[in-house]
Design brief:
- Chain A folds into 2 domains: 2-194 and 376-393, Glycogen Phosphorylase B (Rossmann fold, 3-Layer(aba) Sandwich), CATH 3.40.50.2000; 213-374, Glycogen Phosphorylase B (Rossmann fold, 3-Layer(aba) Sandwich), CATH 3.40.50.
- In chain A, 39% of the residues lie in helices and 18% in strands.
- Chain A has helices at residues 17-27, 74-85, 103-110, 112-118, 145-162, 173-183, 227-236, 258-265, 283-288, 305-312, 323-331, 344-355, 358-374, 377-393, and strands spanning 2-6, 36-42, 61-67, 89-94, 122-127, 167-170, 188-190, 213-220, 244-251, 272-276, 292-294, 316-320, 337-339.
- Chain A has a 7-stranded parallel sheet, sandwiched between helices.
- Chain A is globular and about 65 Å long.
- By secondary structure, chain B is an alpha/beta fold.
- Chain B has a single domain (2-111), classed as 2-Layer Sandwich (Transcription Regulator spoIIAA).
- Chain B is built from 5 helices and 5 strands, in the order E-E-H-E-H-E-H-H-E-H.
- A 5-stranded mixed sheet of chain B has the order 1-2-3-4-5, with helices on both faces.
- The chains are: A alpha/beta, B alpha/beta.
- The interface between A and B is medium-sized, with 23 and 16 residues.
Chain lengths: 394, 112
């Protein structure tokens, strides 16, 4: 089977690059099923270059940078690249803002799967969020109710275009219900997110040595904001003077300059470290040093890769009591302390319930490790390949 | 979960009872691997008495299906209870597996 995958991939810092990286890592191990893999990735800034290590017996990979975040002609350029690659199946690793932070490029990019389907290709999408559950304002779109209504209308239309492909995979059962109920879709399936890390026999150290450390990881500024986390950190400092707060990651592509603004706004708060972009090789250290991983989200746009990573490293987590995330935690067997969204005091209390209670910290960490290792992404990839084989039979 | 294996019409059959989840997958995975290693890649798993299945268990069945097909065989499922069938439909794995109403039909599909 020849597969083309439209995705972001490190060193690109585009959203879903981490998921793309791990998915590709395991696709490449499926040489018994895949004969060739073409990655249709976004163009890097000048001087940047994609490089994948080759391993004996792994699937040959061709990397084709053929689209650009925010460009208007991505659909046509991707189609041209797909036509050149001649894949049996094209897989998109998508969310609604994959192709741009402005409405027109984002929408035009999302028409690419439909365009490819119309051009005769078998097309599958892994859709990380759906319009119905996105808080547009928090996600960086919208602004006034009329504009939000128009965006939702266009979102519904785009969703119908997305659903015209052969298969749409989502990671939350509720998304399946919405897409089937509202759009009458018959080609939507639930596919677990999967764990990024390879399971080991021993549960990692849930309580590393050194100063107690709260860590948050991601691309910040839209629905993932760190303001209340810094405020919660400041509230905890009087009785936890050595507490570290590590803010690991960069601005969201939709919120350039956000973290710089946070640093200025909270310059008076001590023991806060901003790591900037975290390379794959540094991820184990960043998670390893954390006592608790915080999710200061104001809304969610799908399953959380960071939650699965935290689980893979056996970490306790504090989570906002938001619909999707709370549902995911329950359905996928994770545990954590919850706080009221946008409430710094509630967040501080939830962190306190973890760092002041080692037995609870270990309980959550071990529980999350078991949940994360229940289904590694390696096996999720097998699900996709089984489905691709069914698509190709048609 | 209780596990009982048998051979009917030369087809290995595995009967499962109870919750089929992450804590219970190993013996099932081991059984399927043993059959494939012994050049018996046509298998039936009877889920009649399974009242719950999670994603890890589904994944174990997917892996078994893959290995069976790689060896020229297949993995047939039978007698799914409604809660289990719903999970297969939600994940659309009902399209990937051949699922039969009874064990007899699942075996007959192999033996003709």
């Amino acid at each position: 089977m020849r597969i083309a995958m439209v995705t972001t991939h490190p060193p690109s810092k585009g959203s879903l690059n981490e998921y793309g990286y791990h998915f590709v890592r395991y696709l490449r191990l499926k040489a018994d099923t895949i004969s060739e893999l073409t990655l249709l990735v976004d163009e890097l800034p000048t001087g940047g270059e994609y490089a994948l290590e080759t391993a004996p017996g792994s699937v040959p990979v061709k990397i084709v940078p053929c689209w650009k975040f925010g460009a208007l002609d991505n659909a046509l350029r991707i189609r041209k690249a797909v036509q050149a690659a001649h894949p049996d199946v094209v897989l998109f690793n998508l969310q609604f803002a994959t192709f741009g932070d402005k409405k027109i490029p984002a929408t035009l990019g999302l028409l690419t799967p439909w365009l490819l389907k119309r051009s005769g290709f078998k097309v599958a999408i892994l859709l990380h969020n759906i319009m119905e559950t996105v808080n547009l304002k928090s996600a960086g779109f919208g602004g006034n109710p009329l504009i939000e209504a128009v965006i939702r209308l266009f979102g519904n239309i785009v969703t119908r275009f997305l659903l015209s492909v052969d298969m749409v995979a989502v990671t939350i059962p509720k998304y399946v219900e919405i897409l089937e109920g509202k759009y009458g879709a018959k080609n939507v399936m639930l596919a677990p997110h999967g764990s990024f890390e390879e399971p080991t026999d021993a549960v990692p150290n849930t309580m590393p040595g050194g100063a107690s450390t709260v860590m948050t990881f991601g691309k910040f500024g839209t629905y993932k904001t760190v303001d209340i986390l810094v405020e919660a950190h400041a509230m905890l400092q009087p009785d936890h003077p050595n507490l570290r707060l590590v803010i690991a990651g960069t601005d969201s592509p939709n919120a350039a300059g956000y973290l710089e603004g946070v640093q200025k706004k909270y310059a008076h708060v001590t023991n806060v470290e901003y790591t900037g972009y975290v390379a794959e090789t540094d991820v184990p250290r960043i998670f390893g040093e954390a006592w608790v991983v915080a999710f200061p989200y104001t809304s969610t746009t799908g399953s959380s890769g960071v939650l699965h990573q935290a689980g893979g490293f056996g970490k306790a987590v504090v989570l906002p009591d938001l619909g999707d995330l709370a549902e995911l935690v329950q359905e996928e067997g994770y545990d954590g302390e919850f706080f009221e969204p946008n409430d710094a005091q509630s967040l501080a209390d939830s962190i306190r319930r973890v760092i002041d209670h080692p037995e609870r910290q270990m309980e959550i960490g071990s529980h999350n490790y078991m949940a994360a290792n229940g289904l590694p992404i390696d096996e999720v990839v097998d699900w996709y390949l089984i489905h691709f084989q069914e698509i190709l039979k048609k | 979960m209780d596990i009982l294996s048998s051979i009917k019409a030369n087809i290995p059959v595995l009967h499962l009872t109870g919750r089929f989840d992450a804590h219970e997958v190993k013996p099932v995975a081991d059984w399927m691997q043993e059959q494939v290693d012994a050049n018996r890649p046509r298998l039936v798993v009877d889920l009649q008495k399974v009242n719950f299945i999670d994603s890890t268990a589904l994944s174990t069945l997917v892996r078994g299906l893959k290995h069976c097909r790689e060896q020229g065989g297949d993995l047939h499922l039978c007698s799914l209870q409604q809660p289990v069938r719903v999970i297969f439909e939600l994940t659309r794995l009902d399209k990937a597996f051949d699922i039969f109403a009874s064990e007899q039909e699942a075996i007959q599909a192999f033996t003709g």
